[in-house]
Every structure is written in structure tokens, then in C-alpha cells.
From TrEMBL:
PROSITE patterns: DPS_1 (PS00818), DPS_2 (PS00819). This is Starvation-inducible DNA-binding protein. Residues 18-157 form the Ferritin/DPS domain. It comes from Mucilaginibacter lappiensis. Keywords: DNA-binding. InterPro entries: DPS_DNA-bd, DPS_DNA-bd_CS, Ferritin-like, Ferritin-like_SF, Ferritin_DPS_dom. One of its GO terms (molecular function) is DNA binding. Pfam families: Ferritin. The keyword DNA-binding applies. The keyword GTP-binding does not apply.
């Protein structure tokens, strides 16, 4: 399949796919980091953060699937190796074992800032390509991340 089958111009879709693949790589590293936070959280905030991290990694997993399926819908192939994810991602792995709860939250806030920045950039690219489907999808991801940034910043008193 190619983009013209869903009324998009092939030449305008390439930058969209490139950026969606980049976002996909970042979400994979983010997902694993939040999963590690979920597994390794300790202390008085355990119950609160354990649940919050689970909410975030569950949403990230759904996002990963939607991104890959959108890339396929556009007639291209999504990244599918850890090598690609690690190489392409601006978000970097961290060791969550023994990490203090507030440092975990701050690491997630930093990652959300990266995701939001990339999502804003994609919104411009998808608008230029006339790709409303990708635009709507990414806008939804961004809104979720913005809300959770506010909540997590409030948690660590950085509002």
C-alpha cells in the first residue's frame, strides 16, 4: 500500500513517517523507563506512584501500537528493533533500581517534555502533508502527556 490509496501525496508522507518512526523509538525507551520505575518504586509514595507509573506505561504501550499501525497505514514500515529504538531515541535509558521516587518522577517529566516537543513538531509536519489522521492521533498523545506533566510537576512541587 502507499499513501495515495488514502488520498495523501507520497512525497509529503515521507517526512511524516520519518518523524512518526522517531516518536515510536522515543516511546519505546520511555515505556521501558516508566516500567522500570513501576517495578522499582519504594518508600512512602509507593502506592501512589506504583499506580501512576502503571497508568503511564499502559498508555505508552497503546501509543506504541497506534504509532506502528499508523506508519503501516501510510504504507511504510515501523522501526521494530531495540537497536533502532536506542539509536534513534533522544530519550535515554536510566537505571531505576535504587532510584529515589522524586528522581523517578523528574526523569519521567523530562521524558514527557521530549515527547511533547516531538509531538508538536509532528503536528506541523502532518498539517503540511494534509494528514489529518496522523495529526489527530498525535494531538491526542500530546494532550495526555501535557496533562500528566502538570500532574507529575505538582507531585514534586514544581508547578
Amino acid at each position: 500500500m502507499n499513501a495515495k490509496e488514502i488520498s495523501l501525496e507520497e512525497g509529503k508522507v515521507k517526512p511524516v513517517v520519518d518523524h512518526l518512526n522517531d516518536l515510536l523509538a522515543n516511546y519505546h525507551i520511555y515505556y521501558q523507563k516508566v516500567r522500570g520505575c513501576h517495578w522499582n518504586i519504594k518508600g512512602q509514595n509507593f502506592f501512589t506512584l506504583h499506580l501512576k507509573f502503571e497508568e503511564l506505561y499502559t498508555a505508552a504501550l497503546t501509543t506504541i501500537d497506534e504509532l506502528a499501525e499508523r506508519i503501516l497505514t501510510l504504507g511504510k514500515s515501523p522501526y521494530s528493533t531495540f537497536h533502532d529504538y536506542i539509536e534513534k531515541s533522544a530519550i535515554k535509558e536510566i537505571q531505576t533500581i535504587g532510584l529515589k521516587d522524586t528522581k523517578m518522577v523528574k526523569a519521567v517529566i523530562e521524558d514527557l517534555a521530549v515527547l511533547i516537543s516531538k509531538e508538536r513538531e509532528i503536528l506541523d509536519i502532518t498539517a503540511e502533508a494534509g494528514d489529518d489522521g496522523s495529526n489527530d492521533m498525535v494531538n491526542r498523545f500530546m494532550q495526555f502527556n501535557e496533562k500528566n506533566t502538570w500532574m507529575l510537576r505538582s507531585f514534586v512541587n514544581e508547578d
